[in-house]
Amino acid sequence: MIALCYSASRYAVKRLLLLLLPAMLLIAAGCTSDPAASASAASDSIASDSIASDSIASDSIASDSVDLPPSRAGDVQPATNYEQALSDLLSQVVTAGGNVRYDLLRGERNDQFRRVLKAVEDFDASRLSSQSAKMAFWINAYNVQMLANVLEAWPVRDVSAHDKLFFNQPLRTAGAALSLDQIENVILRRQSGPERAEQFQVGRLDPRLHAAVNCAARSCPRLRQKAYTPERMGAMLDAAMRDFTGHREHFRRAEDGGDFVFNSILKWYGADFDRPDGTPAGDYLLSFMPEARPGYDALRGVLEGRSAAELQKRENTSFAYDWTLNATPSAMPERASS
């Protein structure tokens, strides 16, 4: 979810090299070229036994001069109704607790998954007009592409070990070259970015997105067993927020009665929960938190009336995130790829 950051100086050097590269290539080739020789080979499709290469994505994430990546779905027909197909798939491979049967995605459900992925890759997002339709597609697209990342890099145990590859590499999504970082931050959070991403931006920032996008880590709000749909978007996002704020993994007090420990999402994206109407982040989170959950009164005492900045600076409050893969125990690989 959090992409690897680079210093401004390093980025400037890389931009300069990118600008000089065409001229350097022309000089080296004697101003002649062989298009067939320079064409890059298509990547392997995400098949049941595929293992990702260790290639690293381009650092020029902010540039619009990015070629459309090849399909990772392979030679399959896209699912006709991707939302229904995705719901059918998720109901088979995601447990009630949000853990994923990656063994099924790599095995008997692989063809079904690739058809969903193909539909996401080829989807015409220009026809999405409403906020709910845009939110539904781009959250689903993020979650599908993250599953594809895990399958492509298998075996995976620690998502953070693949952060640059998972979050920064351009992926074919809705006919465009978009990274997961761009889907989350430019499209869904409406931050500035390349035009190819900004053209798909939602109409307004909805902080509930943070309970819906899933980065395949244990501390990420759980992956749902159904696809998000425009018709049920509001209810599904509310349910995701209730689940997020009601889970001890994300909001808890240390067992010794000391520090409060919150999910690092509040540290990374806390300001998103401070609402334009003046509602502070703490009150917004409490509006979803089930009162029957363990420790509610103590958590309310910490959250109530406090902005994200105040929560982040509060003494006896820390933030934590477990990047372990959200696999079921039976599907967790014994070791990660080297």
What is the N-to-C order of secondary-structure elements (H for helix, E for strand)?
HHHHHHHEEHHHEEHHHHE
Q: Mind describing the biggest β-sheet?
A: 3 strands, mixed
Provide mean pLDDT, rounded. 86
- How many strands? 5
How much of the polypeptide forms β-strand, as a percent range? 5-15%
What does this structure look like?
It is a single chain. This protein has 338 residues and is mainly alpha-helical. The protein folds into two domains: 71-230 and 323-338, no CATH class; 250-320, no CATH class. It has 14 helices and five strands. It has helices at 8-28, 35-38, 82-93, 102-106, 110-122, 131-153, 163-168, 180-188, 195-198, 233-246, 265-268, 281-286, 296-303, 308-313, and strands at 171-173, 176-178, 251-253, 260-263, 317-320. The strands form two sheets. It has a three-stranded mixed beta sheet. It has a two-stranded antiparallel ribbon with strand order 1-2. Strand 3 and strand 4 form a beta hairpin. Helix 3 packs antiparallel against helix 5, helix 5 (110-122) packs across helix 6 and helix 6 (131-153) packs antiparallel against helix 8. The two termini are 21 Å apart. The relative contact order is 0.13. The model is unreliable at 1-19, 25-45 and 49-63 (pLDDT under 50).
